[in-house]
Amino acid sequence: MNRISEFATLLDEAARDARPVAQIDPDGRLSLDDAYAIQKASIERRLARGERRVGVKMGFTSRAKMLQMGISDLIWGRLTSGMRVEEGAPVDFGRFVHPRMEPEIAFVLGKPLAGDVSAAEALACVEAVAPALEIIDSRYRDFKFSLTDVVADNASSSGFVIGPWSDPRHDFGNLGLTMNIDGRAVQVGSTAAILGHPLRSLVAAARLAAEAGEPLQAGWVVMAGGATPAEWIRPGNAVSIEMERLGSAAFQMQ
Ligand code: OOG
Ligand code: MG
């Protein structure tokens, strides 16, 4: 228990101060349950500073991301209000250790969603979908981690940017997308790369969040996971995602 709160404090302070730390579990000795307990305790510290819980993010939901990081287990993290970046807004690079970005699709729920649900049941609880960018930032030196390391570090959550919301009843299972830096496409892909259909990521989120005793709430955002490998971002970069039919989302790294 003590170790859990010590690691939670270490990771929370590393995120707050944008200062890298050594891996806490390079040899994978911690249990996954302990890793999630560290994540939970570190998020509780953010909530105690006045941030609000606003949703869930999924990780390693595409083959591209699994291959890039060498981890093939689905993971999840907790999103707080302090991670939300206004669409189009400037973002201070000093907030991050070594940020990368990923093209994603976001859901906002109109109703709570918990447990073992079908894709149709999950869809019925979705109020809207949007193109989104996730800014991930591992707190570990050199962005290197084991499965339990990255789970404890809240799945590298750091920021998320959401574009215009659209009606979820038009199929969004195979929408083309590009991720752009300074006007140049650096990754091209499709929402189908996310578990074959991003709704599967929402189904998994509903199950995992309920198992953790924190079922998905109405109004929460669920980030489905990167559709392509992540890309490094640098100060001055203008970053955007353009998604077929759903439009775009952007931010400016200062
Ligand atoms: C872990 C987070 C993975 C995704 O979308 O797959 C993730 C990492 O790669 O640092 O956010
Ligand atoms: Mg992601």
CATH architecture: Alpha-Beta Complex
Report mean pLDDT, rounded to a whole number.
Answer: 98
Q: How much helical structure, as a percent, in the residues? A: 25-40%
Q: How many discrete structural domains?
A: 1
Structural Rg = 17 Å
Q: Can you tell me the CATH topology? A: Fumarylacetoacetate hydrolase, domain 2
Termini separation comes to 39 Å
Low-confidence blocks of residues? none
Structural class: alpha+beta
CATH homologous group name: Fumarylacetoacetase-like, C-terminal domain
Q: Number of DSSP strands? A: 13
Structural shape: globular
Small ligands present: 2-oxoadipic acid, magnesium ion
Q: So how many helices?
A: 6
CATH class: Alpha Beta
Which strand-content bin applies to the residues? Answer: 25-35%
Order of helices and strands: HHEHEEEEHEHEEEHEEEE
Largest sheet: 8 strands, mixed
Give structural notes.
With 254 residues, this protein is of the alpha+beta class. It has a single domain (3-253), classed as Fumarylacetoacetate hydrolase, domain 2, CATH 3.90.850.10. It is built from six helices and 13 strands. It has helices spanning 2-17, 32-48, 63-69, 119-124, 147-152, 198-211; strands at residues 53-59, 75-80, 84-85, 90-91, 100-109, 126-136, 157-162, 176-181, 184-190, 221-223, 231-232, 238-243, 247-253. The strands form two sheets. Strands 1, 2, 3, 5, 6, 7, 10 and 11 form an eight-stranded mixed beta sheet that branches. A five-stranded mixed beta sheet has the order 4-13-12-8-9, with no helix packed on it. β8 and β9 form a beta hairpin. α1 packs across α2. It is globular. The termini are far apart. The structure holds 2-oxoadipic acid and magnesium ion. 2-oxoadipic acid is lined by residues 59-61, 65, 69, 102, 134, 136, 138, 150, 155-156, 225-226. 2-oxoadipic acid (OOG) binds at residues 59-61, 65, 69, 102, 134, 136, 138, 150, 155-156, 225-226.
